[in-house]
Amino acid sequence: MDRDELRERIRRLTFASPALARAFARGDFRSVFRGRGLEFDSLRDYCLDDDSRLVDWSATARAGRPFVRTFREDRSLALLLVIDASPSMDQGSGELSKLDAAVLSASLVAYAAQLREMPVGCLVFARGILRVMAPRRGKAHALAVADSAAECGRIGGG
User: Fold this and answer.
1) 151 lies in the same domain as 101
2) How many domains does the chain have?
3) 81, 93, 100: which is closest to 154 by C-alpha?
4) Could you list the residue range(s) of the whole structural domain that residue 112 is in?
């Protein structure tokens, strides 16, 4: 598949990206850390609805009224796409090779992730690593991931 045809297919796939992006927002974000968040955000006045375990006793003693610590939960996940560009990916059924399908799938996931402002990175390999793109945000970077995979496929696939 040539570059213009690839871009046209990616452009058509972007209409499916918002539905996929909503799926990224659902579900658990599991972490090895326990608790309400990782980074201290601020202190605020205690409300009757608050859990007493969240009271910051040192701030309460200094101010003479109860304060609660709030934390910021880090839900910023980075997505790393790993694409096989070896010669075995040149085969396929119909008009698309396995590499073309992998590039289209990677571009769809990259666009969906950028709609959720998730950083997307890419690693393309054949016998060895052909290209590594560090995770970044933005639509231009999502397209660069797809172009990089397709280009490396032509280089690595022979």
Assistant:
1) yes
2) 2
3) 100
4) 3-24+76-156
Give the helix/strand (H/E) hosting 118: none
pLDDT tens per residue across span 26-66: 554 554 445 555 677 889 999 998 888 889 999 999 999 99
Choose one of 53, 72, 91: the last residue of a domain: 72
Half-sphere exposure for 28 (CA within 13 Å, toward CB): 3
Q: Are residues 114 and 138 in the same domain?
A: yes
CA distances from 137 to 12, 81, 150 (A): 21, 14, 20
Residue spans of beta strands (DSSP E) within the chain: 39-45, 67-72, 79-84, 120-125, 129-136
Residue with tokens 């202190």: 43
Cα 136 from Cα 76, distance rounded (Å): 12
Is the domain of 16 the same as that of 55? Answer: no
Reduced to 3 states, what is the DSSP secondary structure of residue 24? helix
pLDDT for the residue numbered 44 = 92
CA distance 103 to 85: 9
